[in-house]
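Appendix B, record 7
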Amino acid sequence: MTAELTLELLPCPWPMEQLLPHAPPMILLDRVLSRHAARLTAVVTVRPDAPFFRAGRGIAAHIAIEWMAQACGAFVGAVALEAGGPVRLGFLLGTRDFHAARSWFPEGERLTVSVAPHYQDGEMAVFDCVVATQDESPVATAQLTLYQPVDAAALLASQGVRMK
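Structure tokens (predicted):
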């Protein structure tokens, strides 16, 4: 039995709207399926009313990067809420080794998005990410580098950007 299988799965009582500092329609994931201290798995269904959907094609594979980033945000959002803290704004700094097995995800396809922290140090983190089909076949993988400043408003203000 692997170490991952022995980790306790935790229920996620929060909807995506509470885990991410986003507003519809830019919350692209449907919900969190499972999580534990070292991984979170969310689900997304390709729908015609989804942002970035193109009739007759579905959703382009590169949108999987945003799905991965939102799953990372849900992971740290759940950790923050569990500790009694606020959900904070984060930034995607980089994507390494993005690979997609296909160019488009067709309408009606249900995909899982799993993320696991590879490295975390205060405000910086690197996550290993996998988008998979229902039979658990990977269709997109990447490693994301994220930055979550303690005071995002001050950081943005220093660049001349004001938050609402």
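Remarks on this record: The helical segments are 3-6, 16-19, 64-82, 152-158. The radius of gyration is 16 Å.
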